Amino acid sequence: MSVPGAARDAGLQPERTRLAWRRTTLASSVVAVLALRQALRGSGSSAELAGAAVIGLIWLVFLWVAHRRIRALAAVRPPVLEPSSALVVVGCTVALAVFAVAVIL
Q: Are the CB atoms for 92 and 26 separated by under 8 Å?
């Protein structure tokens, strides 16, 4: 049972969370590269180039949010993940999945 007002010992939880963000960033990078490769494999039409640009933009937004979160976790008492940041990450993940399906079809 925790005592109100007592100092909280976070232990290794922030480090595990930081590592999880790094793994997720790596996985997102692999998905983005594979999607870009598939999108640019065709004839080089403007639609393919626009799709590749959107995939790259989504990936950059995800990297930006993940980097901000990784830096925030370095604090002694890391702040809670903002709902807007969580929504952006979910949106990027869903958008990459949608573009991956669109590229495959």
A: no
